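Q: Could you write out the predicted structure for this multi-component system? I'm mainly interested in how the pieces pack against one another.
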Amino acid sequence: MNYYSTQITNLIEELRRLPGIGTKSAERLAFHIINMPKEHVNHLAETLIEARSKIRYCKECCTLTDDELCPICASKVRDHSTIMVVESTKDLAAYEKTGQYDGVYHVLQGTLVPSLGKGPDDIRYRELEKRIQDPDHPVREIILATNSSLDGEATAMYITKKLKPTGIRITRIASGVPIGGELEYIDEVTLSRALIRRIEL
Amino acid sequence: MNYYSTQITNLIEELRRLPGIGTKSAERLAFHIINMPKEHVNHLAETLIEARSKIRYCKECCTLTDDELCPICASKVRDHSTIMVVESTKDLAAYEKTGQYDGVYHVLQGTLVPSLGKGPDDIRYRELEKRIQDPDHPVREIILATNSSLDGEATAMYITKKLKPTGIRITRIASGVPIGGELEYIDEVTLSRALIRRIEL
């Protein structure tokens, strides 16, 4: 790419390494950045560094946050006796956006991947075990909201098996046909599962 | 978006301001960045700042570059008597990628926009005028490669009218049906122009 100068080429190359950014997008972004006021570029660069350096895991739920406790774990209005187990902070955010859940979360930061030998110690599972043993914060229900993928299901099954003996209620979010989804575009596994789990009306 | 911590929210907001980056992409990018090794993030941030601060216009052709002369204007193997006039550094790169052009460029950094009163002094047109008057570097041909848009055509017409009296050969890149393009998906203006400019076989 010697038709661009070194700096532009470097910038395009750096941007192209980011997920979902191809050559065309990287070029468009690079020229946008070059034409931005200098202070804005500095601010963007600082935000990157700042976010990366200040981020840590919430000591309660293991989500990515910048304080010892994330805003949800620190909240007094949330129901701390209901824990929804999700795979990632993005999944937590997805449920928060619904505005329908007022419990707290536990973010596994991954799933078990039996095929790759990724076990419970490779994710934030032990933290969950420890958390439910805390006598000051009794847990009433654990809602398993890992993805409906092979690994997500395996993780849900593993947690169920391990925590069932504690007597805590363990539930799994429903899977089936998405609301508004057109049947002809939905994969067979989802369709079969929706059939098996059909409910009485 | 209070379900993310302040740092993550800031980062997502900053990324969302970039062109072509929506909320979903900004979130994906943000989480990718947070999970990158610290040194990589620092390097990305430095590249942004470096590119923005070192970029300037080539004193010959006005493209964006980091030296006084861009690599093409500094090259001794290029034909300096043929100048292709383009709107932007991205357009220059598009022609360089073809590998079919060995002349030099002049980058207008925009077009005339008659409807908004944007005239020849608002783009790098005067630099072109000055450039072709240099007795040490006689120019044999000017190829107008502005876009086939309304403003691009207006700019090409303006330059033709102004520079015709110099006696320099002035040409315009061909417009017509793109190679491999299917007629049914091509707009009427392109189709009519392709018809008008049809060639004998």
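A: Regarding packing and overall arrangement: The helical segments of chain B are 6-16, 23-34, 38-54, 71-74, 89-98, 125-132, 150-163, 188-196.
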